[in-house]
Design brief:
The protein is α/β, with parallel strands linked by helices and 400 residues long. The protein contains 16 helices and 7 strands. The chain has a single domain, classed as Glycerol-3-phosphate (1)-acyltransferase, CATH 3.40.1130. It is globular and about 55 Å long.
Amino acid sequence: MSSEQDFRDIAPFDDSEFAEKMSVLVKEPGFEHAVRYVMPQVNFDDFVKTLLEIPDKRTFQTKVMYPFLEMLAKKTTSGITVSGLENIDTSKAYTYISNHRDIVLDASFLNLCFLRNDLPTSEIAIGNNLLIYNWITDLVKLNKSFIVKRNLRMIKALEAAKQLSAYIHYAITQKNESVWIAQREGRAKDSNDVTQESLVKMLALDGDGTIVRNLLPINLMPVSITYEYDPNDYLKAKEFLMKKINPEFKKSPHDDLLSMETGLLQPKGRVHFEIGNCINPAIEPLADDTDKVEVVKRVCAIIDCDIHCGYKIYPINYVAYDLLHKVETFKKEYTEEEKTDFEEYIENQLDKVGLPDLSAADRAYMKEMMLSMYANPLKNKTTASSLVCLKATGDIPVKD
């Protein structure tokens, strides 16, 4: 049986070491700079005194992160709503698996919904590629985050996957702590959200049974996240263009920091979370002798169907679909003013790209990518809604 000691390099800090780790964090110049940047009105000395009085992670989340996230929601959104909380049995812990839009805020705003409703928050999976400074690692581990090791050679990658799977099982079955993890590594830049088969395989590594038997104890629960506007849309479009020009293009750590900063501080419009149902009843009927490849595909299809069905569709999604396909299929779902406003928004976002010598064709390509980002949730929800009746039997068609 696993113990906390097996996971010290990836697990959140234990409450017994919280005060010590916090006392080190508050002395970091980088931490002070980040706090002053995100909260320019803060009295940093008073803020540090508050932090040093906090005894554990839960108090940190309720006394510090809760008001911070409420402030952020008020400044950068037109409101955060949530549906499906009744699907959560508070006597259980879950693996919340969601689509991935924003590097920082997907799980943070989900936890805000839990805090508002006096529900337990989840531990958060975060890739070590984002932890470019030691103080960032300390901060996220003080805030109930665990580390996903990435960009490793094959043998090390397998070891890391087994450790991560074991930790998630340990957190849920022994600590009774829910966890959040994105359905794929990295964000779906075009908002076409599809669960990565390798993720499901990783989650099923821990245990001695079949894939399904190993997944059942961690209570997979899909969550749909919808941002009306994605403040990173133009940065994602720019990345599409850079990869079109040079297939070997890779983002720098500075690019990730810019994406985090933009996602945190820029307007997002309305934000909605839809908590789905635990998929155990849908996957349990899969026979033990079912081909493993087929099982993984079925599990992914069930998760995808739940996430796609849970999207909140806004007028701009209908506008984007019609503009992208040069049709008027959803003309009744928006006004001419909403269409004009969205077209102006897209052009203004494209103006931010800032690449020199940008051709008309390059701009048109990025515009197409941005329209796809806003049209794909509508397209996927329309498809998934016709399949939802098949979910309970696991008969949802799989994608090759």
